[in-house]
Amino acid sequence: MIRRTLSKVAKTAAFIALSTLSAFAADKVTLRTNWLFYGSHGIFFLGIDKGFYSAQGIDLAVRQGNGSGNANRLVANGEDTFGYVSCASLISLAAQDAPIISVMEVDAMGTDAVLARPDSGIKNFKDLVGKKVLTTAGAGVNTFFPVAAKNAGVDPASIQLVNVSENALVQSYLQGLAPAMLAGIDDKPAEIIAHGGQPPVQIPYSDYGVYQPGYAIVTNKELLKKNPDLVRRFVKATLQSVQAAQKDPDSCIQSLVRWAGGASVDAKQARQVLDVTLSILFSPNNAAKTLGLNVDKDWDSAVGLLKSYSGLKTDKSYTAFFTNDYVK
């Protein structure tokens, strides 16, 4: 009788244990990247491999993107839970009442820059006067070029921008069609080197007073209302992933290459891109060096710049585009 009672107790305990595990099944979450997989995206795959997301009860699937604008729309439509997106794109769409918001920054500074051939003698904006500079029509890097030029004391009209297709940009630069190009320092220098070019001279807009956050984690505002704990857990795991990438960037790239599967990822080039992201985790305005913090001055600056130079129409305060409730 005692044995039967103990057996029933054991079965009951097992049932309760299984029920508890079922109740706490991992949340299935998707993250849409801004583009095809590249170095910076390794952070998320490293977090999966290290178990940071699973420890927070998250079953994360990272999906390749096709531009920040598209990623933002997928999050706004509820097709993806989170996105890794450019903050300028986030602001532009959220200003039109898309229900999206940044819950943490990753790249805390914009990477827009002029890249010059080392044999051109170009070292700053004043050296660009009277010269041709390659770019792509409609590229985001074009938006604040006039601002950086004016802040450097240069008339933007004195520099001739030459449009080429995106897939011809680096090759045109390497072939000497112009001594410089407009691009992001997060990916194009690595691409130039990968195609046999010398490391370019980098002239970041941020050196000329163009302050703006770079890339952030975006989610749907509805999720903040319905499941703020999930957002908190995701941000915590992502912050841990960033810190792990800082400590061991090689493992971060290994995770990227392994998870990318059929996607073509050059490990050396990916590492160079990752290094840029890890070098701009804190903006000059983040005095406390709080990882992931959405910095007020940077977002205020970005909204102001977009209004002045990109035709942004909004009555929203810059504070409407982000929250730090899940970072602090």
Task: Provide key terms for this protein.
328 residues, five-stranded mixed beta sheet, alpha/beta, D-Maltodextrin-Binding Protein, domain 2, single chain
Any overview of this molecule?
It is a single chain. The chain is an alpha/beta fold. It has two domains: about 25-110 and about 210-320, D-Maltodextrin-Binding Protein, domain 2 (3-Layer(aba) Sandwich); about 110-210, D-Maltodextrin-Binding Protein, domain 2, CATH 3.40.190. Helix content is about 40%, strand content about 15%. The protein is built from 13 helices and ten strands. The strands form two sheets. A five-stranded mixed beta sheet has the order 2-1-3-10-4, sandwiched between helices. Strands 7-6-8-5-9 form a five-stranded mixed beta sheet. The longest helix is centred in the N-terminal third of the chain and has 22 residues, at about 1-25. The chain starts with a helix and ends in a 19-residue tail after the last helix.
Which helices and strands appear, and what pairs or packs with what?
Blueprint: H1 2-23, E1 27-32, H2 42-50, H3 52-55, E2 58-63, H4 68-76, E3 82-86, H5 87-94, E4 100-107, E5 112-116, E6 132-135, H6 145-151, E7 160-163, H7 169-174, E8 180-184, H8 188-194, E9 201-204, E10 215-220, H9 221-226, H10 228-247, H11 249-260, H12 267-279, H13 296-309
Parallel strand pairs: 1-2, 1-3, 6-7, 6-8
Antiparallel strand pairs: 3-10, 4-10, 5-8, 5-9
